[in-house]
Description:
It is rod-shaped, with a radius of gyration of 46 Å. α1 (2-89) packs antiparallel against α2. 81% of the residues lie in helices and 2% in strands. A two-stranded parallel sheet has the order 1-2. It has helices spanning 2-89, 95-191, 194-200, 220-223, 241-247, 252-263; strands spanning 209-211, 228-230.
Amino acid sequence: PNLNLRNELTKEFNETAEKLNETATILAAKEAKWAHVEKELREKLHSTEVECANAKANGAILEAQLKKRMQNEHELASQVSGLASRLAEAASESNENAKKYDQSIADLHAERKDLIDTVEDLTHRLKGAAKAMETMRAQQLKIIDGAISHEQIVSKALEAHAQIVTDAARQQQELEIAKEERAIILNLLAKQDEAYKNTIFPKADQKRLVVEAASSFGWQKYMGSEGDMISIERFGISAPGGVAMEKFGYTVDNVVTRAKAVMGK
Length: 265
């Protein structure tokens, strides 16, 4: 039975090691994928920033052109004003010239209104384009921050998993040591004569509490017909040593309580 149990534990330990290697391989693949994704995101962010800079530069050029056009408009208005003066002076000479003058004034005012409407429309479009660029840049930054945060969370989860596997391996090693010590003690007891055994385990006293930090195998015949046993009848748990021992009942309070129960107190 000890050999079978040892083989089962060895098999479970090997399986755990294989799972850990698989986890490490998956982690490496994911890290490579995350690095590629981060590179693409950074490239997209750089491209967006370049486009935003180009849009701002184009806006500055368009603004300069608009200013130039407005200056031309002002000069044109000045010319119109001079023309109006000349037409006013020549009004007495010809009614036809006056009509042409009035029509020229109307056309110039209409063109001026069209120019003002065009300037307002272009200004509104520039503001909308700049706002859209800022929104797109903010979204790109959020995506990058989210990817980095996700990578950190996954890394912490893998570290916790590795710690659990390490604790499980350590518990298995401790159980193996306990089994070896139990086997030594039981072999020594088996080699003693009945008289010596009776001094340690009096037949008249069948109320005994056995505390074994491993399997109960081999201790039943020394426990007594009215005795009890604290032992581990399973592989173990993934937890720190102190937490695991408390979970299995290896505490002062539990030992005292079980001992009192055996003694009938």
